[in-house]
Amino acid sequence: MRKALQAGAGLIAPVCIAAVAVLGAGVAAAQTPPCQGSLTVIRDSAILPGKMPLFEKAVADQTAWYATHGDTATPKLLKILRRDPQTGAMSYAADEAMTATVHRPGVKSPPHDAAWNSFVAEFQASSTIKSETAVCWPGR
Q: Side-chain half-sphere of 19: how many Cα atoms within 13 Å?
């Protein structure tokens, strides 16, 4: 997923904290090869200046949407850690985050509605997707 931290380079290392990803329409619905696990969509997002709280709210609102619509998808927020090259201290990035949404096999996502559009608008107002990857998450 990411390059390992190199001594003094200050590269990024992802750490799972908890919350969500917006699943692009069609990613889960598209034909996928057999997966002995769960389809998982991982996104790396650039967070707009000062917009991390709104991004975190979008993640929480997406999680609530899945829960209230009978979908078993489990979104997670992956906060990015950065190492200060001078001090070695780690801190959370304010300008980048990753999300991962695990979709259970055989569960079809409910139709999108106004609440879906609302959290999608929060993501759009707080971030830009840098990359999106669909993976087969091991296990069930």
A: 23
pLDDT in tens, 95-138: 999 999 998 888 888 999 999 999 999 999 999 999 999 999 88
Close Cβ partners of 113 (under 8 Å, ≥ 6 residues apart): none
First to last CA, the chain: 21
Q: What's the pTM value of the predicted model, to 2 decimals? A: 0.75
| Percent helix, strand and coil across the chain, each to the nearest 5 | 20, 35, 40
Counting every residue written for the chain, the total comes to 140
Rg of the chain, C-alpha, whole Å: 16
**Is the pLDDT assigned to residue 23 strictly greater than 50?**
no
